[in-house]
Fold:
Amino acid sequence: MGAFHAYDIRGIWNVDFDKDTVYKVGFFLPTLLKTDHVVVGRDVRTSSPEIHDELLRGITDAGADVWDLGLSTTPMVYFATVFLKADASVQITASHNPPKYNGLKISRKDAVPVGGDTGLKDLERLTKEAEVVAAEKKGTVKDYSYVRNEYLDYLKGFAPDLTGLDISIDCSHGMANLIVKDLFTTGTVHYLYDRFDGTFPAHEPNPLDEKNCKDIEKETVMNHSDVGVIYDGDADRVMFIDEKGRFIQPDYITAVLGLHYSSIGAVGNALVDIRTSRSTTEYLEKLGFRPEIWKVGHAFAKIRIRELDAVFGGELAGHYYFRRDFFNCDSGILASLLVLSVVKKLKDEGKTLSSLIDSIVKYANSGERNFKLDRKDEAIAEIYDRYVGKADPTRVLDFDGYRIEFPSWWFNVRKSNTEPYLRLVLEAATKEEMESRFKEISSIIEKYC
Structure:
């Protein structure tokens, strides 16, 4: 598939991209973004130091300076981009992917993402076609690691008093370890996998896959915790476990964030992705929000949240975006602080997180399922013909695959932008209808596997 995608540059290191690609990305990036400096951070993957060195060599050979953060969460790079008033930044990470993957997340001024249609395609073309002619005067590398403390101070402004709350946290051996222990200083906190290890020996750093949440689910119950928290590899995503040890589907957490913002009088537009449950959108509407459905992916969400002046946004994948609180960007750690503030209020009122989630969820939801196949377009075409051409849906959204809605059920089918999958989410008024409809659509997709 190659490493250049709709949201970022990502793939298997030394298979989908290599040192030459990284060097050229670094070399051509200052020209593309018309800047003489680039903020750079990196995660703890074993290939990140090598990628870091090649990226810095490319940037400085272009005559631009590097403002080097060192080890960073991805949201810390977004923060640094705004805090330092930088014109460009790169985070070296493959986020939630397995250890053999790595990648580059690129942003421009104000932490606006550089996606496929906003520069990445041009950058890919430059790396393949343009000639490298090193500048006569090379740029320099400057140590900006102090930004970590500035970022920590910023997050502390959102940290609630969690005294009396019991929390279990899985750091996934990833970048959350850079910050969490300096941030969670109240309440009783139990940590799992709270040391850096870029091989991710305990589990893959992808909490959306519930098999990676088994340990935190057990830990939450064993510790009698009020809530469990698990971050992905670069700490831009977060997911939660209720006090019963149940994984909470991430789009339901969007509703919980709505409860937080409504409690402080911040109600307005809320951004959700095309896979979001009706349980969430209906709950948000009851709180006074106007949910706006949009495309999946941070490169799309960060632009749309600005256009809508939305209070916040959330995705099924566990990304949560904050218009004014975090420069339109996503932050797993900030999201966890706000959710924990809700859990603390619930406990003070004698209530539980599970009771809140049970009050939100009104429909049977399949979660997102993946089908690995090459003939994705043919499968989607047959699904469209059957459920739009030969049926009478109440609404059809066509900007990220299709979301096709009927009175008692809906589904979204879409191609992954980063992996060789066709993805399906389906929701219905009853579990029986959900399972029946899911089997029905799956049988169409499986013909093209």
The chain has a mean pLDDT of 96. The first helix runs from residue 19 to 32.
